[in-house]
Every structure is written in structure tokens, then in C-alpha cells.
Amino acid sequence: MRATDDAGVVLNAEFEIEPDGDHLALVMRSAGGKVNGSPHGRNHQYNLVLELLLRRLRERGGALESGVVDSAQVKHLPEAERTIVGSRVVLAATPDIGALRKELGRAQGKIGKSGDATEQIRLRLRVPGYAADDADRLATDLAKPADRGKAPDALVLLRSLIGDPIETVTGNVNTIIEAEQKRVLVTTDRSPQGQWVDVRDVEAGLEKLYAQGSVLVNVGELGHRSAFVGAVLATIPGTVVTLRPAVVTLHDPEFPVRIRKFAVLDGTAQVTTRKEQRELRRLLLGGRTSAPCDLCGHHYPEEFLVAAHIKKRSLCTDDERNDLTNVAMLACKFGCDSLFETGHVTVDDTGRVLARFEDGFGGRLRDHLGELHGRRCGAHRTGSRQYFTWHRDNVYRG
Fold first, then answer.
1. Can you give the pTM of this predicted structure?
2. Is the confidence at residue 255, as pLDDT, over 50?
3. What confidence category does residue 128 fall into, taking pLDDT thresholds of 50, 70 and 90?
4. Contact present, 198 and 187 (Cβ < 8 Å)
5. What residues pair up with 178 in beta bridges, in sequence order?
6. Rounded to whole angstroms, how far apart are CA atoms 160 and 141?
7. Potential cystine with 294: which of 52, 211, 212, 379 (Cβ 3.0-4.6 Å)?
8. CA 389 from chain center: how many Å?
9. pLDDT at site 268
10. Residue 113, number of CB atoms within 10 A of its CB
11. Three-state DSSP class for residue 18
12. pLDDT value for 148
């Protein structure tokens, strides 16, 4: 198989991915003499392709478990005499892949009599998401450029996480409680009052993740708030976190994440109940069995309406949670509740709904946003204005 570089050029060097016991192995075919009808030798871009494949393996969180020269001239030797990778190499922890490739070349040159640094080699691999029977799939994935898409907007991502526990790779919980244009306030067990984190730190982490495909969660890679930045990156769909060292890897959307299977599916858990929720819903309905959604104005039976907090309940004080007549509104399950929760709509200071029309939004979704935009919100009043202001400042994507 031949690899295509990121510019779409098919490179002249053959490789294979093969099962090797309970591992997979990358086999690089050797470079050699001239090929009839070509100005170049066989597999003359060997070094270029090997480095490209190592980079793509790093993007997938791969590691080299061992490596040997595998050419016919030395294959009769014991592996210990033709080893070029003597201990595990975690590629995500290897910042200079070019230097690693040269090191492999120098090691090859010391084996046998030829001194050749482009012999056939066998590198045994561990790659998250790929088992020993996935050789063909890994070969196909390595041969083509990764399609990681565009990095999400850092502030939009951070605002979508407000109030939600975000767990770091070491198990510590961070919670974003406030978001400004250039910084977010984050609480931890050690800093219950919160500390400000620059949005640019998260932007830099996102850019690095989408450029490289994986990032080490450490200060050198992600800055002095690396634990928090790594936790945010790990919330992106398609990411996989591995430990020792801690690495966040972004896979293609079609990456088949292996699902953990549970021997026992039922269990017991303690549930935190929202004691005021029933009273809140009763108060908002006012004895009615149907009511209008406060955003779109359409009437629905009560089972299709939710008592939606305007300010995230997890960030409300007890006094705010008890402000039942102002802190929440009725929102329908036919889109309005989700659109408000995710910040695609909000309410301005005059009580009008603001809708965010993003690229790619079309069809029924765009029609619904258009219907909402400019409508008067039924829940906006003097007492609720502060909660809508909080939502506008911290959740709305506009």
C-alpha cells in the first residue's frame, strides 16, 4: 500500500499493516535500486513516508512496542541482534517525530554489513481502537490524510459547558460558572470561589489538537492550565483520552469507538432530587392542562412542556432557586427548550427573542429559528430580567 500526503500526492514507498501476535505491525518495504521506466529508485520516498506514518500513528494515540530490521539479509539473526526499538515509545510523548525517524535510521545502519538506513523494518504497534484483526482498517486509515474538520469556537464550546462538571484526566472536577468574552471563571475543590482562565489558552489547545490530531495534557503542550484545557478538549465528540502519559486524541467522525460491555446492567444509585421542581412546574402551569411555550407561543399539553431554568439551576443560589416566579419559564420539547439550553436562542433586554443563525443550519431548524427571532418572550418581566441577562452573557452564542 502507498500513502497519500496531506496535499493529496501519492508517495513512492510501500508499507503494510499486518497482524503480529496480539499486536499490529507496520512493515516498511526497503528502498533500493532503479526501477525500469522511472528516474527514481524503488520506494525512494521511504523516509518521507515513514515519518508521515509515524505522525499519523501519533494522531491516533499509537505507541511503538518494539521494532526490528526485517530484511532477508538479517532475518536469520536473533531479534535481539536486529532490534531498532528496544523499549516502548509513546508517540504522543515524542514531540520531534523527525528526530525519531532519523534515530530509527541510525539504528538500522548498525545492523548487518550494508549500513543501509532504509531496510525493510517491522514496528510492532499498539493503537487505541484497533485490535489485531483490524490490520486492513488501520492501513487504510494511515494511508489517507485525516479529515478532522474545523476546530470549534473556543468561547462557544466553553459556554456550552457552563454548570457541568468537567473531569480532568486525574479525576479532579472543574466547573465553569461564568463566561466573559476573553475569560471564564472556573471552580475546583481547591478554588471554590473560582479562578479566571484565558479563553486564548483553550483556543491554542483546540488549534493544536485539530492540527496534530493529538495533544499531551501537560504544561509544555497546553500551558499552565493544562489540566483544565485538556478536560475541555476531551468533551469534543470523537476524542479519546489515554493515560501514562495523558493524551487527548481526536479521531475521524467514523472512528468506531469500542463500547465497554457491562456484565451487570442494573444497579442502584443515589439520586439528587430537585425538591422545588414539582412546585415550579405547578406554578408555571397555574392549574392549566395545556399552556403556551414562552418562546414560540404555541400551545401544548402539559406533558410536552418543561419547566426550563433561565439561569442554569446548578449555578443558582438557593435564593435564586426559590425565586420560582422568575427563574424559569415553560419551554416546549419541540425544539425551544434545546435551542435555549444550547445558546442558539436567548432573550434581549426588551423581552424579544434573539436567534443565532449558524452556517449549515437549514430546513426546519432554520425555519424554527426564523419564527422565534423577534418574538416577545412570555416569561420576560422585571423580576426575570437578571436571569435572561445571565443567559445572554454566559450561554448565548451570538
1. 0.59
2. no
3. confident
4. no
5. 185
6. 31
7. 379
8. 30
9. 53
10. 7
11. strand
12. 73
Q: Which residue's entry shows cell 515509545?
A: 89
The DSSP annotation for 188-227 comes to -SS-TT-EEEEHHHHHHHHHHHHHHSEEE-SHHHH-TTHH
Which parts of the chain are beta strand (E)? 2-4, 10-20, 23-28, 63-69, 83-85, 89-90, 121-126, 165-167, 173-179, 183-187, 195-198, 214-216, 239-242, 247-250, 290-292, 299-301, 305-309, 328-332, 345-347, 353-355
144-190 residue pLDDT tens: 987 777 888 999 899 888 988 899 988 899 999 999 989 999 999 89
C-alpha cell at 68: 526490528
Cell of 216: 499531551
The pLDDT-based confidence of 115 (bands split at 50, 70, 90) is low
DSSP for 26-38, please give it.
Answer: EEEPPP-SB-TT-
For the four alpha carbons of 102, 106, 109 and 111, in that order, the dihedral sign comes to negative
| Torsion 335-340-345-348 (CA) sign | positive
Say which residue the cell 430580567 belongs to: 385
In three-state secondary structure terms, 314 is helix
Buried b (16+ CB within 10 A) or exposed e, 248-276: bbbbbeebeeeeeeeeeeeeeeeeeeeeb
Query: Checking phi first, is residue 113 left (phi over 0); if not, alpha (psi -120 to 50) or beta?
Result: alpha
User: For residue 8, what are the contacts with CB-CB under 8 A and spacing of at least 6?
Assistant: 145
- Hey, what amino acid is at 124? R
